[in-house]
Amino acid sequence: MEILFKSFNEEAWRHKGRFYTIPAEVPFRSYQPRDLTVVPRPVNRPVEIWQAIASGKSIPFMVQHGIKGMVTMNGELVTRQVFNQFRDEAARAGRSLAPGEDLAWGGGLYLAPSLEEAIHRVRPYHDERYKWFAPFGFVRYADEHGRPWGTPGAPTGVPTIEEGVKQKAWLVGPASSVIQRIRELETEYPGLEQIILHWPEGMPADEWKTQLRLFARDVMAAFAPVAATA
């Protein structure tokens, strides 16, 4: 990350760290380079960087360097914990953020005329995802006490799509239900501006494109653009 920041922000730079020395200490065309440049450098700086948050360990570093966070496929309680931790860390760094600011929320999507039909159709893709995700402990759900799955006393194992819907990690059912859920997020996190629609692994591309078209037509239309304030 230090190398990345230098390449974005410095016209000429060098780096000597634990793993990398840049430029390498070897002659290049009979001379030893001292500095490097990135060409072309980004026109708009600082460069907006987004990073997935898989645990809370990376949040202090992200906040200190102005990196924004993506929280996807997490249960409602885990999402709330991560969002609150990000905001608290920002406050400790002297940055006052609205709930959800500098963050993106992501959930699985499947639109259908009824919740039952959506669950039936997305189940094969959901199960395929967690068949290989769950054994590694990557089920970001929590029990009623807020304990993440797999921690002492909390559930463990492969979740069902019904559990995912209960945990509010999935946007499934008719458009009206999806709109209602996004409205809930809008109310709880007034600073949230970014929504990620997570492709259910294994779903054919044509089916996913159909889902995106339905979302654009029936869900996005309910959210009018908000003019930026002066």
What can you tell me about this protein's structure?
This protein is an alpha/beta fold and 230 residues long. It folds into two domains: 1-47, no CATH class; 48-222, Alpha-Beta Barrel (TIM Barrel). It has seven helices and seven strands, in the order αβββαβαβααβαβα. It has helices spanning 2-9, 59-64, 76-92, 115-133, 161-166, 175-188, 205-218, and strands spanning 15-16, 21-22, 50-52, 68-72, 103-111, 170-173, 194-198. The strands form two sheets. Strands 3, 4, 5, 6 and 7 form a five-stranded parallel beta sheet that branches. A two-stranded antiparallel ribbon has the order 1-2. Strand 4, helix 3 and strand 5 (103-111) form a beta-alpha-beta unit. The longest helix is centred in the middle third of the chain and has 19 residues, at 115-133. The protein is elongated and about 70 Å long. The two termini are 33 Å apart.
